[in-house]
Each structure stands twice: as C-alpha cells, then as structure tokens.
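Bench notes, afternoon.
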Amino acid sequence: PSLDWWLDATAVPHGPLELPDGDASGQALRIGAGARLEVLPDPESAREFAEVRIELDVHQDGGAGFAWHGRFRGLAAAHLRGELAAVTNKKEKLEQELAPRWPGLAVRQVTVTGVEPQADEVTLYVQGQLKQLGVRQGDRVRVALLRPSASLLDTWAAEDKRTTPLVLPRPLGGRETVVLQLPAGVAVVEAPRGLKGAGPHAHFAVTAAVGDGPCEVAVDWQVALRRLPAGDYPELRSFLARLDAALRSELVLQWPEGTP
C-alpha cells in the first residue's frame, strides 16, 4: 500500500505500473486499516513512451534495405506484449502488420525483448527488404515516409460529433524518424518541412533534414489528455485531420536521367 500501486492479476501483459485502460477510473477496494473504496487512476502521459526509427538503404534500382527499431513503455508496451506473446511466427505477423504501409516488404529477421520474460520496456527490431520504395514516375520516386497504416482521425475520432466526453484508451503519440541512405546521383527534390499543429492538449511537428549525408524525416506528436470534453471534440478532429495530412506529405527523389 505504501507504494500506491494498483495491480490487475488478470491482465497478464500489463506490468506493475500499467493498469489496463478498462480499469482506469473504475473503483477498487483498498484493504487495510480503514478499508475504503477508491477511484483507480488514469494512465499517466509521462509513463507513455513510443519511439520508432526506420533506416532505409535505398538501391539504384529503387528497392531498399529496411531496418525498423522500436522502443515502447507504458500501455503501448502492454499492447505489444498482448499482441506478440502468443505468436509463434512473429516474422509472418509483423510482415502482415507492416505491409499496408510498406508494400512488398519481405521480413528477414525479428528480434523482440521485454515480452517473455516481461520487462518495463519492450523493444522490437525488424530487418527486411523492400522491392520498391514508393511509387516510380519516370526518373522520380514519390513516397510518404510517415504515412500511418490507418487514418488517425478514423481510428480515434471517427464520429462527426459527440455529446459525451471522448475516452481514449491511453495518451497517444510518439516520435518516429525515417532515415534514408541514398545511392550516388540520387537527390531529394521535395521534402515535407515546417509542418506543425496544435489541438486540445495536443501538438505535432513534422521535420526534414536534407543535406550531403543521409536524409531524415521525423514526426513528434502527442495527445496528452485521455478524457476529452465533448466541447473539445471538434477541435480534436481538426487536429487529427491536419496531422493525417502532414503524415501523408511526400518526399520526392530524383534519379539521374535515363536510370533504368
């Protein structure tokens, strides 16, 4: 009791600091001297952590080596434990999960830590090969490097309007960075730059660094409040729509003229 930890023994994928979202704001009986009913806490945004780094080694033929590194804590880690703990063929599952965003990806290797046995942080490494990066149009390739597999607006705020508060399963967000190592002669001619937005207890920023070395595109975003009043719902929808549009922004690569 002195630690003020709430545990759900039936929630196997969750660690000692990660109550399932279904338990949040529920009631629990604290047993001890002066037993009393208490309201369970909401997930803490400070406990949530999701960071992904994707490295693409682009080839002259338009294919690319693919390396996906992820680190997760909090309910994001619990979600991954629940998804992966019972899966025997993790390579096949992750290939299917990544396919909508990275068509033609062939996964060669998967390394997972923090699932079995459990650790506070879950790490995930996926290595593979892309047959074709983006869409080829003559000597150019167009690719939305940060585009999610599903619209964030449709996932988290699909209703046109609400008269009751919106309760999200957890604070949302994270940081994702995509790094491209380009072959000789290939140049970046368009890149998303300076895309920012804010909403109710929310923010995002999309940045790009283009220079002599590797090209880097990144997004940092967060919706920190789990319970959103109905009056803030239209603004949240606007925020997620703008974030979706920013994540669909394309990087354009130019190959030397006449490259097959």
